[in-house]
Amino acid sequence: MADAPVCAFTHEPPPRAVADAIARLARATDVRRVAVMPDVHLAEGVCVGTVVATSYALYPDAVGGDIGCGVAALAFDVDAARIADPRTAAAILAGLYRLIPVKHHRLGRGPSWPESLGALSAPALWPGRAREAVRQLGTLGRGNHFVELQADEDGRLWLMLHSGSRGLGQAIRAHHLAAATAGASGLRFLDARTPRGQAYLADVAWAVAYAEANRRAMTDAVCVVLGDVLGAQAHDATYASCHHDHVRLEVHDGETLLVHRKGAIAASEGDVGLVPGSMGTASFHVTGRGRADALRSGAHGAGRRLSRTDARHAISVRDVHRQLHGVFFDHRLARALREEAPAAYKDVEAVMRAQGALVRIVRRLRPVLSFKGM
Asked: Residue 304's beta-bridge partner residues?
């Protein structure tokens, strides 16, 4: 059978390992179409920044472990210049540490559980992990997850927040991948026409909903902190959220397909999208253009240029301070933040130019304060 067509929107030739991974994906069982985003980079199984369409095959590795991971944004009624005083920034960081744990809440201390979430498909996932789910709701996680305060072109203060389904998404991926079948190219898949495939789809939908509830809970916490420190009020009508690790049924060119997005946002005409840069670079609010050969998708961020290991070797603590000049952050984390420094990521401006046919830029924002857990 011929390889699936691949449509790439990269702004530079991908590394050989990335090109090989994409070619392998195009040969995989039932893969009908592949779209490659400009922030593509190597990851386990399937590259981040890849969109895959199939007719029946479900690829857990084409979604990844942080199912439903995404970004939320919200505007406030104050100017970002209010954070110019280091004492104000320190008070905000202290408040974020108090209300948004990196790992988990102490029992009884987290936000209320959304009863609408229901349960997962198997005893190994639920109720076995119910306690973990409750304790991790409203928590940030490590790595590239962040809470960032930003200024738009008019100086207005915005929140941008990046997190996902925490340990639950990883557990869902591992549970279903263990029952998957090795197909062409060695990638493991589930059949959506079977009960196990349907269980995976249900668990993905659960994780997407959990991830959104997680971002909502943290957004509420940020509102409390900014209210306490700045007297700021959120403009609830400006709230936006999008996720970039999922699989769902969509109709493309009259055909119903299972569209997997791993590190890519849905970008149908008018879809709201949020594209973070790195800790020291611009982020963007966008709307989709509905580009058909991109499977109506767009880039989810700048994308890694260096692996975490390479970044720790190539970037110094001094580099971190220099690259984050003008952005408030916890300087005690400077050594750990080497792997999250701007130099570890691609040029987000180049990424946005490369996806000009995929999304429209609505708003450009610069970072003012960054809160991360490392």
From this structure: 345
Cβ-based burial of 127 (10 A; exposed 0-12, middle 13-18, buried ≥19): exposed
Per-residue confidence band for 220, with pLDDT thresholds at 50, 70 and 90: very high
CATH architecture of 6-305+345-371: Alpha-Beta Complex (3.90)
Distance CA 276, CA 365 (A): 9
Is 244 catalytic? The answer is no
The distance from CA 272 to its chain's CA centroid, rounded to whole angstroms, is: 14
In total, the chain counts a number of residues equal to: 374
Q: Which residue out of 244, 285, 300, 313 is catalytically annotated?
A: 300
What are the residue boundaries of the structural domains of the chain, listed by start?
A: 6-305+345-371
Instruction: State which amino acid sits at residue 126.
Output: W
Question: What percent of the chain stands above pLDDT 70?
Answer: 99
Report pLDDT digits (tens) over 188-198.
999 999 999 99
Question: Which residues pair with residue 287 across a beta bridge?
Answer: 272, 360
CA dist 55 and 175 (Å) reads 22
Going by pLDDT thresholds of 50, 70 and 90, the confidence category of residue 127 is confident
The number of C-alpha atoms within 13 Å of 285 and in the hemisphere containing its C-beta is: 22
Q: pTM here? A: 0.96
